């Protein structure tokens, strides 16, 4: 009744479609269709129902509005049902179902692998971001520690200064003032030295001018 299977692979070779049983084993009935499809489906006997007499299998087809097409489709359905009954797991329907199942499993496996890879990349990116945040926090903590140490040193210096006797603090202030005054006096001396040199040069120039005038007046008197 059915042709032997060519191959059990994943679709590269599929068994041929089973042949329908002989007409002597079929009981055919034309009935009205049901469900949506318009008045032609519901009011005409276009649906086909077949009954296999030896086994009692019944199939029905109302796939189209054409009775001839429904007859051909019904015979294909009956042949597939008989193939399943006779060959079981080796039938075309079972092999096609197995191929579809394996393909769906393969797609699901690829999808899971893809999402696992994306999840791993996202986890790596998250870990890297957390490491950068930790480094920034460590740097901030180090800066805060340095600032705290500087503040502590300043407070210690202030406490030491406050802990000195009054006469020691006064002596430090006077020493500081004397240092500032000494610097100011040195600046004034330098300025005075530069001014004295300038005045000496001006006096020399004035003496030379007066000598020249006396010589000129003596020469005019001799004439």
Automatic annotation (TrEMBL):
<feature type="compositionally biased region" description="Basic and acidic residues">
    <location>
        <begin position="209"/>
        <end position="223"/>
    </location>
</feature>
<dbReference type="InterPro" id="IPR045853">
    <property type="entry name" value="Pep_chain_release_fac_I_sf"/>
</dbReference>
<dbReference type="GO" id="GO:0032543">
    <property type="term" value="P:mitochondrial translation"/>
</dbReference>
<feature type="compositionally biased region" description="Basic residues">
    <location>
        <begin position="100"/>
        <end position="117"/>
    </location>
</feature>
<protein>
    <recommendedName>
        <fullName>Prokaryotic-type class I peptide chain release factors domain-containing protein</fullName>
    </recommendedName>
</protein>
<dbReference type="GO" id="GO:0003747">
    <property type="term" value="F:translation release factor activity"/>
</dbReference>
<dbReference type="InterPro" id="IPR052405">
    <property type="entry name" value="Mito_Transl_Release_Factor"/>
</dbReference>
<dbReference type="GO" id="GO:0005739">
    <property type="term" value="C:mitochondrion"/>
</dbReference>
<feature type="compositionally biased region" description="Acidic residues">
    <location>
        <begin position="129"/>
        <end position="149"/>
    </location>
</feature>
<dbReference type="Pfam" id="PF00472">
    <property type="entry name" value="RF-1"/>
</dbReference>
<dbReference type="InterPro" id="IPR000352">
    <property type="entry name" value="Pep_chain_release_fac_I"/>
</dbReference>
<feature type="compositionally biased region" description="Basic and acidic residues">
    <location>
        <begin position="150"/>
        <end position="202"/>
    </location>
</feature>
<feature type="region of interest" description="Disordered">
    <location>
        <begin position="16"/>
        <end position="42"/>
    </location>
</feature>
<feature type="domain" description="Prokaryotic-type class I peptide chain release factors">
    <location>
        <begin position="23"/>
        <end position="116"/>
    </location>
</feature>
<comment type="similarity">
    <text>Belongs to the prokaryotic/mitochondrial release factor family.</text>
</comment>
<keyword id="KW-0496">Mitochondrion</keyword>
<feature type="region of interest" description="Disordered">
    <location>
        <begin position="98"/>
        <end position="223"/>
    </location>
</feature>
<keyword id="KW-0809">Transit peptide</keyword>
């Amino acid at each position: 009744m059915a042709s032997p299977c060519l191959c059990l692979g994943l679709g590269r070779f599929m068994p041929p479609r089973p042949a329908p049983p002989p007409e002597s084993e079929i009981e055919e009935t034309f009935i009205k269709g049901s469900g949506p499809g318009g008045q032609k489906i519901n009011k005409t006997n276009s649906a086909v129902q077949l009954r296999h007499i030896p086994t009692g299998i019944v199939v029905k087809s109302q796939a189209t509005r054409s009775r001839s097409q429904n007859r051909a489709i019904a015979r294909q359905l009956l042949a597939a049902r008989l193939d399943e009954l006779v060959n079981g797991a080796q039938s075309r329907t079972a092999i096609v179902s197995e191929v579809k199942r394996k393909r769906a499993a393969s797609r699901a496996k690829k999808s899971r692998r893809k999402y696992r890879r994306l999840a791993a990349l996202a986890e790596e990116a998250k870990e890297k971001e957390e490491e950068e945040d930790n480094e920034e926090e460590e740097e901030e903590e180090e800066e805060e520690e340095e600032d705290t140490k500087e503040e502590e040193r300043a407070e210690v210096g202030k406490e030491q200064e406050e802990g000195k006797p009054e006469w020691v603090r006064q002596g430090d202030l006077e020493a500081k003032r004397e240092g500032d005054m000494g610097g100011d006096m040195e600046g004034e001396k330098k300025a005075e030295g530069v001014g004295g040199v300038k005045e000496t040069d001006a006096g020399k120039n004035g003496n030379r001018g007066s000598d020249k005038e006396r010589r000129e007046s003596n020469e005019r008197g001799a004439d």
